[in-house]
Design brief:
With 110 residues, the chain is mostly helical. The chain has two helices and no strands. The protein has one domain. The N and C termini lie far apart (150 Å).
């Protein structure tokens, strides 16, 4: 079998196919790997910058909404304080009026 020409032809064809397959499935060269890593790094950097910008925008929106809510609550609190002062002044005036009335009523009857 070793002496037959078909064997050597098959051996050469098989070797060529093997080399071609090895080249197709072999790992990339060091330069190609570095280039791919550099490209991937740039892509990931861009994605992270985009995500960071989105997070920053969301944080700013939340902060602005929080400021608005705080301002609204501050106004409500100021209104409540003013209403409380007015109610206290009114009650004080009513109590003083009743006191004066009662005091003068006792003086008149005495």
């Amino acid at each position: 079998m070793v002496g037959k020409p078909g064997f050597y032809t098959g051996l050469v064809i098989g070797g060529v196919i093997g080399v071609g397959a090895a080249m197709l499935f072999a790992p990339k060269s060091g330069r190609e790997v570095r280039e791919q890593l550099f490209a991937d790094t740039g892509e990931w950097r861009a994605r992270m910058e985009e995500a960071s910008a989105l997070a920053r925008d969301a944080a700013n929106t939340i902060m602005e909404t929080g400021k608005e809510v705080i301002e609204q609550q501050k106004l409500r609190l100021q209104e409540a304080i003013q209403e409380g002062r007015e109610a206290a002044a009114e009650t004080t005036a009513e109590m003083l009026a009743k006191y004066e009335k009662a005091r003068h009523g006792e003086e008149d009857s005495a």
